[in-house]
Specification:
single chain; alpha/beta; 2 domains; 9 helices; 6 strands; about 45% helix
Length: about 250
């Protein structure tokens, strides 16, 4: 199909991607940074509850605050977060970053169709920017919203609503790609259409049942068929609305 969805009066004008564990698998780097932070403060990260260590989608600053509370550290959360951020950036810069299978093709295809692209992540903005550049995708994204830029992390919709505002696109015209249950909840609370993309590397299986659609990976998404169906549905809705208006006028 040629032309953009907006030109075709389709349902979506923008696509918003979660980043960590949706576009790239960064669980190893996050775990390494958390473990190093705990070691530096004389504690063992493995003493944290397993459900905490294996969870996904929360802001890094919220993770640090919970670790601080659990171990009873007195060092200010802001200082601990700054160190956790440094450790994570170092881990990312010194390891291979492999994108999720099929994600680069989906990003490029959506951009070629004329959709505005954004990142809405609980992660760290600098790491997102650096990794996008490493993947050759930095120039394709109009906006990035990271965990340190919002007051309330997912499942609150603030991250996604902020991204929509920066893109100047109505939330109901935004298509979201997410991998976590809290991320799906945030996207749906923002009034956006959410495709849940299951992370094959996830430490625990996420409940993604609240998403509008679920796929086992970007390589399992028939993007052309999906977006063409969205165009058809939007046109049908427009025809239905026009018919209702004509009927009401008679």
């Amino acid at each position: 199909m040629t032309g953009s969805l907006t030109e075709s009066h389709g349902q979506f004008s923008a696509a918003i991607f979660d980043f960590d564990e949706t576009m790239v698998n960064l669980e190893a780097q996050h775990n390494a940074a958390a473990e190093a932070l705990c070691r530096e403060n004389g504690c063992d990260y493995l003493e944290m509850p397993a459900d905490f260590r294996n969870s996904s989608g929360r802001r890094v600053v919220d993770e640090v605050a919970e670790i601080r509370r659990f171990f009873g550290w007195r060092r200010p959360t802001a200082d601990l977060y700054a160190r956790r951020r440094e450790l994570f950036l170092e881990a990312c810069r010194t390891t291979d970053i492999v994108p999720m299978t099929g994600v680069i093709a989906v990003v490029r295809a959506l951009h070629d169709r004329g959709l505005r692209l954004a990142i809405a992540s609980s992660g760290i903005r600098q790491s997102i920017e650096e990794i996008l550049l490493r993947l050759g995708l930095g120039q394709l994204f109009t906006a990035i919203v990271a965990g340190e830029q919002v007051e309330r992390g997912k499942p609150d919709p603030e991250t996604y609503l902020t991204a929509a505002r920066l893109l100047a696109v109505s939330p109901d015209r935004c298509l979201v790609f997410e991998d976590s249950s809290v991320g799906v909840a945030a996207a749906r609370a923002a009034g956006m259409y959410c495709v849940a993309v299951r992370n094959p590397h996830a430490q625990i299986r996420q409940d993604l049942s609240a998403a509008n659609m679920e796929v086992d990976g970007f390589d399992h998404l028939d993007l052309d068929a999906f977006l063409d169906q969205a165009v058809d549905e939007a046109r049908a809705a427009e025809c239905g609305s026009a018919h209702t208006r004509r009927s009401g006028a008679t």
